[in-house]
């Protein structure tokens, strides 16, 4: 039986989710703020956290960052904000998916099941003969650790969304991707297009790759079409599990 922790200061939502998720075989715990979340994590073997963005005291973005720094517990973020920037920021802080409020509880169940299935032990384990390192133009992507090594040997950590976006580029270098295609890959599921969101995500990946936004060498903007990863060669397997 899998344990879900719902972190939300709205008592009506937590009560609803505790009852509703329980019908699908989950054991559900509730917390209304950062201290309560930490107490629940200490008391129970939590398999996934449903985390509200707007919380009293420490907000959901800071808690997502805290969770990701100490564990790989999957996070689904809830947000009442319509700003695409907040959604991208949540993914960059380590969230695996997000849902906007108000939401359908049945859709949340489907999202939880998808994330747990995707991150189940062995679900994304590569064959023993497969390398975990991808080399491109002097850079090295360590897939298991999800970080980059610069040509000068500096370690550059990647968020989940940045990692997915880079893998998408590396899997088909020099292909033009539309914003819709990149957003679907970076978020790990089909979604409506938020063009400004993917622009922000590309901008952050450019920063990680030390790519000058005024004259980018690696991630080039193709006017009216999308983006192209202008890499000379890619060595290694770039497969990843969404």
TrEMBL record:
UniProt modified residues of type 4-aspartylphosphate: 52
DNA-binding region per UniProt: 131-231
Keywords: DNA-binding, Phosphoprotein, Transcription, Transcription regulation, Two-component regulatory system
Transmembrane segments: none
Keyword Transcription: yes
Ranges where the Response regulatory domain occurs: 3-116
InterPro entries hit by this protein: CheY-like_superfamily, OmpR/PhoB-type_DNA-bd, Sig_transdc_resp-reg_C-effctor, Sig_transdc_resp-reg_receiver, WalR-like, WH-like_DNA-bd_sf
Pfam families (UniProt xref): Response_reg, Trans_reg_C
Superkingdom: Bacteria
Residue ranges of domain OmpR/PhoB-type in the record: 131-231
Cited PROSITE patterns: OMPR_PHOB, RESPONSE_REGULATORY
SMART domains, alphabetized: REC (SM00448), Trans_reg_C (SM00862)
Protein name: Response regulator
Organism of provenance: Curvibacter cyanobacteriorum
Lineage, opening ranks: Bacteria, Pseudomonadati, Pseudomonadota, Betaproteobacteria, Burkholderiales
